[in-house]
Structure formats: C-alpha cells, structure tokens
Amino acid sequence: MNQRLQQLSSWLTEKDITCSFITSTPNVFYLTNFYTEPHERLLGLFVFQQEEPILICPNMELAQARNAGWEYEIIGYSDTDNPWELIQHSLSKRNITISSLALEKEHLTVDRFEQIQKLFPSTSFVSAEEKLHTLRMIKEEKEISILEDAAKLADYGVEVGVHAIAQGKSELDVLATIEFELKKKGIRQMSFDTMVLTGLKTAAPHGKPGLETIQKGDFVLFDLGVVLDGYCSDITRTVAFGEVSDQQREVYDTVLKAQLAAVDTCKPGTRIGDIDRAARTIISNAGYGEYFTHRIGHGLGIDVHEFPSMNETNDMLLQKGMVFTIEPGIYAPEIGGVRIEDDMIITADGAQTLTKFPKELLIK
C-alpha cells in the first residue's frame, strides 16, 4: 500500500477501529490517486487495519481507476446494480466482521448513512475527518510543486484580467477572457466560480459577476484559482480603473498593510489566531473593523477550502508543509471593497508566498 493508506491503516489499528469507509472525491483521490466526480453515483473506499483495501466505483470509471495506479480490488457496478449488495457480498467473501467504522460524517448524506446502518446493523461509527484533515494538512514535496505551478497560473489569470479591463466592458466579458486564456494553457477547471466584480459590487465578499460595466473610478476585484493535477490555487487582487478617491486609496492601503503584517507573522510555531489578529488589529485601528467580515484565510490543497480554518480563535500552531491563504478585506457598501489574497506555504524557518502578482495599488 502507498504511504497514505498505510498511515490511515496504522491509525485504525491504534484506535482499534475495524475499518474506514471513505466516500468524498477529494479524500478518495488523496488516498488512491484516482480522481472522479461520480455525481449521484456511489464512490467509496474501504481501508482496513490489515486487509487490502477495496475501491467502489461505477463500471464506467474502472479503467481510469486502474490507469491511476490502483492495484487492489475494485467493486464495479452498473446503473442497474445495487452497489450496497455488491459491497456486502465482497465483505462476506473475505469473512470480514465490522464492529466499528470510521466515516466522513461531514460528507455522508442521511440516505447513505441509513444504507450503511442496514449493511452493518451492530456497528459503532466514529469520525474519520480528524485523521484525514491531519494527513492532508502537511503537504508532501510533490504536492507543493503542483501548488506552486497552480499559483503561477492564478497569477497569470489576474494578469489577463487586468489587461482586459476597459471602459464599458462587463464583468462577464473580463471573466470570459480570463477563463478562455487559461483554457489555452490547459486548465479545464477553476477552483471555484471566478469572480470579477466592479464598482460597489466589490463590497460583497462573494459577489456574483454580471453584465455591470466597468466605469472610471471603479475598483475591480478579481478572485480566481485553477485546478492543476487535482490541486487548487486561490488569489485575489483589487485594482482601480482610471482614478481613485482619497478614501478608496485609504481603504486599499489599509488592507495592504494588514495583509503584509499577516504574511510577516507566518512561520513555524506561530498561533493561527495571531495571524488573523495581526491583520484585524490594523483594519480595526484604521476604523474599518466592522467591514472585515470573514476569517483571515483557509487551508488550501485538493480542496480550495481545507483544514484548518484560519480564524482568530484557532490555537493551532503553524507547521512546516502547511499551505493556506492570507486574505484580509474591507467591504464598505458606500465605497466598495478591497481584498488582497495570497497562497502561503510554511517552510522550515519561515514562509514562502506562492502567488506573486504585485500587490501595490494598480490604477489601470
């Protein structure tokens, strides 16, 4: 078994848990190198203390699973099969009795949990999330290399967007240009729905791009990322078009100062909450505290939002290999919003910023 599967098996042995049943696409990918989006169909992975693991997936995905390097049993099924019956048959052949089962409680639907209860009526259930979060939190060298390349493509996306800004262009015009140019680079999927917001719409942290047009004096906010070899990047930059008011410049400078302060605190042993506090204190002291309405960032990897949550109450200490975002913002409805976001990795003695697009106020 690969090292990741071995680590999960060792945890099961340590905790005296019979096996785990992993059902989310990101965690199945992490453990098997097989990435698929099964939609409503069942995808699952049984990992045991000693027995070889079992993968469950639709028949149409069998070849992809083998091509991804999966060497163990696969339970394939067609759309007319009942996969739960096939699982029961496979476990019976192995004479496996499951007394305790680790599940992704945050992922399972009620319907699927009821199916599992029918399959294992005398089984106790525990959460697998804590261990999976811990495993995925510390990135390996190969993962870091992919994340570095994904960050470069995010930088490129912002560069394309800035060059596309013009009087009267709509948010969706610019967004389409960004994604078209990234597809020409081989990117099939964005980390999340790309955001290009202009004017007062920038004051919505998760605003929806539309047909609103760019006008002189607007902030233009870009929030985007790409999926590269199964890993995500995430960058935000805010630029100005034509001119800025004194108040807009003050807001921008405050966010930049806060973001740089937060970045400077990042090193092994730093409490996560202190990173949030470093930025939040600057924004609050400038009189904009009520307009910083979210945490300082989030873990980053296979999912664009991963463990840990980078908020001011988190007492976890940074460790080498952790990758996360730093993204303070001010969202003032009467002025507009500014957010500046970078992807960070903790190194042996400090931190490295993966996203490199300039952060000084750019007036296009």
UniProtKB/TrEMBL annotation:
Residues 147-348 form the Peptidase M24 domain. Keywords: Hydrolase, Manganese, Metal-binding. Pfam families: Creatinase_N (PF01321), Peptidase_M24 (PF00557). Its cofactor is Mn(2+). Residues 4-138 form the Creatinase N-terminal domain. Signal peptide: none annotated. Belongs to the peptidase M24B family. This is M24 family metallopeptidase.
